[in-house]
Amino acid sequence: MKNIFSVFLIAVVFVSCDSPDQRPRNDDNTLSAIWVNVPGADENSARYNGVFNVSKDSVFIQVPFKTTSGIDINLKKLKFRGSIPSDATAIPAMGLMDMSTPVRIDVISGLQHVKSYIIKVTQK
């Protein structure tokens, strides 16, 4: 009985030690669907979408001085959001940022190719 169990255990170990499938890395470093949210406000009602320039290397976002619910908008504390490919990285990471001056975002593809974007938020 011990021999059968040992053989079964060895067989399970060898069968379960399969190498993972290698997925080819993506060369896409596109930043898309860019927006900012106001901390403390409803994510959907205080969402302000960005507009790309013609060459697609700069994004402009206009926000009001107050949200529709009356919360003051501080450009030094905005949540920056955007979409990048699944194996890409954004530097600096998207999240709570000081957007009072233009911000440079580098998107690095899975193959380590870099594309830079300038994000400018203004109040109207």
Chart the SSEs and their pairings.
Blueprint lengths: L1 H15 L15 E6 L9 E3 L1 E2 L5 E6 L14 E6 L5 E3 L4 E2 L5 E6 L5 E10 L1
Parallel strand pairs: 4-9
Antiparallel strand pairs: 1-2, 1-5, 3-4, 5-7, 6-8, 8-9
Approximate strand percentage = 35-45%
Major sheet details: 5 strands, mixed
The total strand number stands at 9
Q: What is the approximate shape?
A: elongated
N- to C-terminal distance? 80 Å
CATH architecture: Sandwich
Which consecutive residue ranges, at least 5 long each, have pLDDT under 50? none
Which structural class do you get from the secondary structure elements?
A: mainly beta
Helical run tally: 1
Query: For the largest beta sheet, what order do the strands appear in spatially?
Result: 3-4-9-8-6
Could you spell the SSE succession in H and E letters? HEEEEEEEEE
- Total number of domains: 1
Descriptive account of the structure:
The chain is mainly β and 124 residues long. It has one domain: Immunoglobulin-like (Sandwich). The protein has one helix at residues 2-16; strands at 32-37, 47-49, 51-52, 58-63, 78-83, 89-91, 96-97, 103-108, 114-123. Strands 3-4-9-8-6 form a five-stranded mixed beta sheet, with no helix packed on it. A hairpin with a 5-residue loop joins β3 (51-52) and β4 (58-63). It is elongated and about 80 Å long. It starts with a helix and ends with a strand.
